[in-house]
Amino acid sequence: MSRIEQRFAALRAEGRAGLVTYLTAGDPDPETSTRLFAGLPAAGADLVEIGMAFSDPMADGPVIQEAGQRALKQGITLRRTLALVRELRRADNATPIVLMGYYNPIYRYGSKDFARDAVAAGVDGVIVVDLPPEEDSELTAPARISGLDVVRLAAPTSDDRRLPAIIEHASGFIYYVAIAGITGTRSADAGEVADAVARLRRFTDLPIAVGFGIRTPEQAAAVARAADAAVVGTALVQRLAFNLNPAGTARPGLVDAVLSDVRPLAAGVCAARKQI
Amino acid sequence: MQVPNTLRGGPDERGHFGIYGGRFVAETLMPLVLAVEQAYAEARRDPGFQAELDYHLEHYVGRPSPLYFAERLTRHFGGAKLYLKRDELNHTGAHKINNVLGQTLLARRMGKRRIIAETGAGQHGVATATACALFDIPCVVYMGHTDIERQKPNVFRMKLLGAEVVPVHSGTATLKDAMNEALRDWVAHVEDTFYVIGTVAGPHPYPMMVRDFQSIIGQETRVQLEKAEGRLPDTLVACIGGGSNAMGLFHPFLDDPEVAMIGVEAGGHGIATGLHAASLAGGQPGVLHGNRTYLLQDEDGQIRDAHSISAGLDYPGIGPEHAWLHELGRVQYVSITDDEALEAFQLASRLEGIIPALEPAHALAHVAKIAPTLPREHLIVMNMCGRGDKDIFAVADHLGVKL
Questions:
Q1: Contact between chains at B302 and A61 (C-beta distance less than 8 A)
Q2: Using one digit for the tens of pLDDT, what is the confidence trace for A50-91?
Q3: Average of pLDDT values for A4-21?
Q4: Which residues of B are less than 8 Å from A136 in CB distance?
């Protein structure tokens, strides 16, 4: 059983949804970034999503764009992102780690080498925003051999004709993009999310995580009533950015400030189904 | 690599030219891209659509554009006979309008109520704003902040035409960032918006569709040269940013092996300096903006800044069909530096009374290199794909002239 399967099984046993947190690897600097990721599970993150910085993140709003720029300026690369995961795995062999980003760095790395090295580093899954089912066999094939889950995305625009193609070859979980738009721009509508999750469940038994447009503990709780996990990214990256000096360096207390925001999100997600 | 029977049959049904092209977009956009593909396939089979496009190309754009024997340049070079395909005489001053009219008619056919576009030099933005004024469709043009600074006349033109010009500050604030921002807009307005892409790049069907709309350049050239010289050209030359004017000129001749073709990339300060926009000469295959193609990038797959004196060529990628033709060896790709282009810009102005855009000035600079070495009966057709009015401020600046 993979770490992702184990974690979702444990969540089901507890009768609750999970919290997935997103931060970009290497933001705002390698050392602070490592401390942030290392602190997330204790603060309540059930799955950790690690952004692979890319110069041209077409699906991201300004907050995550800037996070990537900061990380790239600090010298982050895909190789160093994998090294970060190796470092995290020395202390934590249970929390599922999923990389999220764009295809070009993976393609340059070589998708076969990437799948092998990612699994060796301790990565459980990968989400590639600009690699739709029509194009992703060059990654899903080597990923299957290496044991790396390729998490497929579904969107409000994915109709019933498309969903079977998305579900086929999907592994780990399905990532439902709750809004038609880029990250961090508008709020997801809880009713629409519930309808969409119900629709997805007609096609798959895989767990369903919902992201894009979830900022507050209340929104996370609302999503957690329907979905298996709620993903929060921009709000956390924004908290990180609030704790930077004008020059872009981390202020003392940055790590605590971000982790303090994770706790109420986790509490919201945990309590969601008890309130019903 | 296997060479197909025809080079004009691409792409395959999934939008691939060899390993290039494809549809590398976010899932949110995928159904829209498929809808554009289906609508275009239907429009292509509809004689009414083609008739409406032809009508506007003739009466609004002013096609066919002349194929002009450049006698003084020919004499100056002292070798091959040079013809210029005068697409700079089109309404709005460049070849861009050929494609924009096609896509705008398609957007109308699909019932879209809002059009977005990206622009570098501003020519595609002006063409899109023009078509949107003509067909009364709200228009938003994304343009890098850096490009807005160096292409002020075109920014004002777009505003006069009623378009909203949105400055893009992210990344390097040039054409690639404008395209990122247009894609972000499209994701957020999936219901009502049509994205008019300006070059033979982006997700399938755009590279094919834009090529088809631009192929009128080569089709006319074929007929016009037959009339003037009774035969096919020996060499075609065109500049390449994304490569739409070149694809439009080349495509109708791809299956004529006796016709040589040369695409001219922007060499900036020189390939060796790293400050250039020559994706084939200085890039590697990668995935960006919906397609796999040659890209300027570092070892980690991060996209590098392009550099060119010409805002219209300042793009770190190239259309996927060019990447394919490059690997097949069917088209030869070369590069020309900023300084060489500036010299050709002045040469055409002085000798022919034609002020070229900086983009085709690159093509002319390469013609200047090869024409003297070729015999007098050798026929070169160069695409004069845009006029230089938009560039006079930038050129004056480079020549140290205060206006």
A1: no
A2: 999 999 999 999 999 999 999 999 999 999 999 999 999 999
A3: 97
A4: none
> Which chain A residues contact residue B166 at CB under 8 A?
none
pLDDT at B217: 98
> Same domain for B185 and B140?
yes
Same domain, residue pair B387 and B344: yes
Residue in chain B closest to A78 (alpha carbons) equals B300
Q: Give me the pLDDT at residue B241, please.
A: 93
Interface contact A180-B28, CB threshold 8 A: yes
Average pLDDT of A31-51?
98
Q: Are strands A18-24 and A47-51 parallel, antiparallel or unpaired?
A: parallel
Q: Is residue A252 part of a domain?
A: yes
Question: Taking every pair of C-alpha atoms in chain A, what is the biggest distance, in angstroms?
Answer: 51
Contact B295 A104 (CB under 8 A): yes
| Inside any domain, residue A276 | no
Judged by a CB distance cut-off of 8 A, whether residue B188 touches chain A is yes
Q: What is the dihedral of CA B345, B350, B353, B356, to 10 degrees?
A: 0
pLDDT the model gives residue A37: 98
CATH of the domain at A107: 3.20.20.70
Out of A27, A29, A46, A49, pick the active-site residue.
A49
Q: In this model, does residue B2 exceed pLDDT 70?
A: no
Q: How much is the pLDDT for B150? A: 78
Q: Does B390 touch chain A (CB under 8 A)?
A: no
The arithmetic mean of pLDDT across residues B13-27, rounded, is: 97
The answer to whether A78 contacts B180, with C-beta atoms less than 8 Å apart, is no
Same-domain check for residues B270 and B344: yes
The answer on B282 and B139 residing in a single domain is: no
ipTM rounded to 2 decimals? 0.96
B18 within a domain of the structure (yes/no): no
The neighbour count for residue A29, using CB atoms within 10 Å, is 18
Residue B342 bridge partners (DSSP): none
Question: Which residues of chain A are within 8 Å of residue B22 when distances are taken between CB atoms?
Answer: 134-135
Question: Are B385 and B241 contained in the same domain?
Answer: yes
Q: Do A104 and B299 touch (CB under 8 A)?
A: no
Tally of domains in chain B: 2
Q: Is B8 part of a structural domain of the chain?
A: no
- Looking at A190-194, B41-45, B282-286, B374-378, which range is the least confident one? A190-194
Q: List the CATH number of the domain containing B150.
A: 3.40.50.1100
Q: Is residue A60 among the annotated active site residues?
A: yes
Domain that holds residue B183: 26-56+96-210
- C-alpha dist (Å) from residue B158 to A262, B32, B98, B125, B154: 46, 26, 17, 7, 6
> Is 90 exceeded by the pLDDT of residue B151?
no
Between these two residues, B281 and B174, which has the higher pLDDT value?
B281
Q: Is it true that the peptide bond before A156 is cis, omega within 30 degrees of 0?
A: no
Domain total for chain A? 1
How far is the CA of A133 from the CAs of B14, B23, B109, B298, in angstroms?
12, 10, 28, 27
Quick count: other Cβ atoms within 10 Å of Cβ B3?
9
Number of A/B CB contacts below 8 angstroms equals 116
Identify whether residues B52 and B184 lie together within a single domain.
yes
